[in-house]
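Lab meeting, action items carried over

1. Structure of the three-component assembly. Owner: GW. Status: complete.
Input record:
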Amino acid sequence: MSMLELDKVSKVFKSGTFGGSLKPALRQVSFGIDRGEVVSLIGESGSGKSTLGKIVLHLTPASAGKVSFEGQDVTEKKGRELHEYYRHVQGVFQDPFSSYNPLYKADRVFEMVRQEYFGGLQRDAWEAKVETVLETVTLNPADVLNKFPHQLSGGQQQRLLVARALLLDVKLLIADEIISMLDASTRVDVLNMLVSLKRKGLGILFITHDLSLGNYISDKTVILRHGAVVEMGETPKVFGNPQHRYTKSLLTAVPQLHKKWAPFDWSANGSAAPASNGALRPASGAAAPVAEEARETRRYSRSSLSPLHAAKGAKSTPSVGAGAAVAEEAAPGPRPSLMEMEGGRWHRRARRRVTLAEVLAESAPPPLVECEPGHLVAVEE
Amino acid sequence: MSLSVRNLRIAYRTLRGDVQAVDDVTFSVADGEIMGLAGESGCGKSTLGNSLIYLEGRMRHLGGTVELDGKVLPISDDRAMNRHRMRDVSIIPQYAMSALNPTKKIGVLARDLLKSRGTKLAKVLPEFRRRVALVGLPDSVLEMYPFELSGGMRQRATMVISTLLNPSLLIADEVTSALDVSNQRAVGELLTEFRDRGYVKSMIVITHDLSILAQIADTIMVMYAGKLAEKADAGTIIDRPLHPYTQALLSSLPEVGVRYEEEELTGIPGRPPSLLDPPAGCRFRDRCPFAFDKCAEEPPFVELLPGHQVACWKAAQDVAGSAEREHEEAAR
Amino acid sequence: MTRYFARKIGLYILAFWAGVTIDWAIPRLMPGNPIEAYLARFSLNSQGSWTALYKLFSKAFGYNLPLWDQYWHYWDNLFHGNLGISIYAFPEKVTTMVAQAAPYTLALLVPAIVLSYVLGNRIGAIAARRKILDNTVLPLGYLFQAMPYAWLALAAAFYLAQLERWFPVQGGSAVGIASGFTWAYIWGLVSHWFLPFLTVFLVSFGGWSIGMRNLVIYELETDYARYLRALGARSRLVRRYAYRNAVLPQLSGLALALGTVIGGNIVTEVVFQYPGLGHLIYIAATDQDYSLLQGIFIFIIAGVLVANFLIDIVYIVIDPRTRLSMQGAVA
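Predicted assembly:
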């Protein structure tokens, strides 16, 4: 039993004035994080990776499934129990600047922790504690204390937020894209700091869309797509021997310094056999690799189970265009479905109201199989 | 010679004073060349790119000239510049995903914009449709509003509109930064495709991501604190950088395959200097592990090796040293 | 589409029901009895005649019935176009009184609002890029906005009507001239109309132009405007786009302003003794004439709802983004 255990966690979003459409954002995700372990959760935008982080942090409830921390069910915690939970589980998010109130000095975030959790502590003891955590995150107290947020660099701000979490007896840190807004020269410092924290026994859920960052830091990797796990396992295995087409396609798209993008044939089934020519040879638009996204989308939309690959790269706008274009082509599913996907959202096809259980059942992910010890892959459809 | 920039200096006003974001910059881009412009945030790379097409209200042209295909670009004269915009020089802005008016259909927006540039939409419509298909958008986008498209699709629509009149120079400002890896690759490949097909003659790709440039750029120019640090062809910059800043930047990049257990990467300590009151001498001096007395003087941006320009005293010494050694060896 | 409108109309019906119910309930929940208040005016001496009259009026106004029945009767009457009888002007019908006052209010406020809207938007948009206007017209707008309206109206009435005698001081039409389609009568109407119109116009003009200026400045700074300029669009095109997008929020404001027109402008109509609906509300409120108040409020409720509904439709026509939510609702 791991320190944090996710058991078939699902999340369905309702949208529309009267909850007219339902969208499964997470589909039965299960994995665990141990003490001193970094697990990276990798996915593209819309994959549900941030939602998962929010569920662990109790910022949004799960629609189904169980989250347990040190053997205790977290999902039902509230009030005092939740207060205690936050003593051990903390989050840091993408945009450091928005975590601070620009009108107050940055170290006010520490003061808030003191009021909330260390009301009885003497001033001296508290200050010593602050200094210790600042050292842990490799910050010089003189550089960051008594300063306003805009006087600090992004890297300093992010490290200060991690330090805030460390003031508590934190055992698990949810790091949601915490370095994607930082400059290259400071990114590595934050990453290395996380490594040193992990060595001291902290468990870290490292949420990112950047495969190289995930690969650099994590012991285990979980690849998420459309809210479901497509591949997971020990990082060297997942990156060194990727099995799922999606993982392979992601890896070939990563830009590398000393290797040009390898050709990748998206249309072929099974393994990623190098195509004769991977460069753009667009006689017509449809033949261009850039249309691959669209084609890929179509392929998946045929199955009534897989959510559309719409709104890729978008923050929140539903992609009506893509949905409409695809809806025309989508062949009817193998069996009459209660729901249908359109414009990135599920809609009721049936006249009657569709229950949560039905949505969960219909959006159930393909099963995971073990391809080698410590390496699971989703069965491809 | 497609683009030639000489001693360009651009400042922009802030509440705390003028910031000289582009300081005495000289470079050129050849026909058919994709030049990557790299550096950290605040180094002036975006200001440099934008100044070649549109000086916003708070930006000021302090000096220097820009020539495109032998003609001087009147960059400080907004009206005179209009004639060149979109036809000679065009841009895919950093905010490409929100660059389209939300209440106008994409086709209507293109029509209005083209009319401003003295062209009828009907004249370019077949080509427009062909390019829309090339970037993987459905033909119906012309009839769609921007909010009906995903962010990635909007960005591609912007790419097509910006290059409709086959500009000589295209500035692509951080076009891959907000994208997921698979879209990053698609857009990167599209940029080279646009060049290969002659939609644009040459291109400046501004990004903080050196690994994208390693994929698509012919040459790479690195900026630091408003100054040029190094310029050479892409392979040279990636494999044999001479400037300590470029070296440090490259060694701080985690690549797929690099794990902390095997190879602990290091960042660059410190922060870039404030451009409100930049220090004299080499601006990287405070963060540079090789800094020595000479660095108190400003290093010139000179060609140390054929096609390889660097602004660094240390690099100059090294190159001179190895040349001497070679010379001695040859003499022996 | 159909479902979207069905849902919208459903919501409007719900809002109308809630509004009318509250309108009906308030006088009945308030302390004090309107009939007692009314009878007090007659200074009746005998207890017997007081009781008799009380019963008579209670029956006439239907206050003797159980509340539930009163509620049903109220709706029943409403659908028959019967809003009851005024207490203050007994036995005048509320509908007749509203019908007499409404033309004055509409003639006063609709032109004032529409004209100030059109001119305010134009001037505000120009002020967004012309320093001269920004430094002259706009401060005036702020001045009129910030000034207590009652004070402005009183000042206008005092200086322009009382002292200078350019305009009549009060009323809606000239006294002693028979109504009819004669020059004298129409001149009387216009001269009485002008001052209240001017004050309302000035104040709303200030509001519209300030709002528009800020909206246009915001729009001119947006990414799409920067993109257009970077690609060398004519400044006229950039302005046209910015204006059109900036007008959208203004339009909601116009809808609300037009919706509340039906209630009249109480301060204006009281200061100038202008016989519109606002004046009527004032009288009804001071005389505790609940049936009259209720009747006028129903007009206001209906007016606001209809105006909002119309603006919903206009929005769908001019702002494509709203169509997206409609599609969402269809599926």
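2. GW to write a short summary for the group page. Key points so far: The longest strand of chain A covers residues 21-33. Chain A touches chain C at residues 15-17, 20-21, 318, 320, 342-343, 345, 347-348 (CB under 8 Å).
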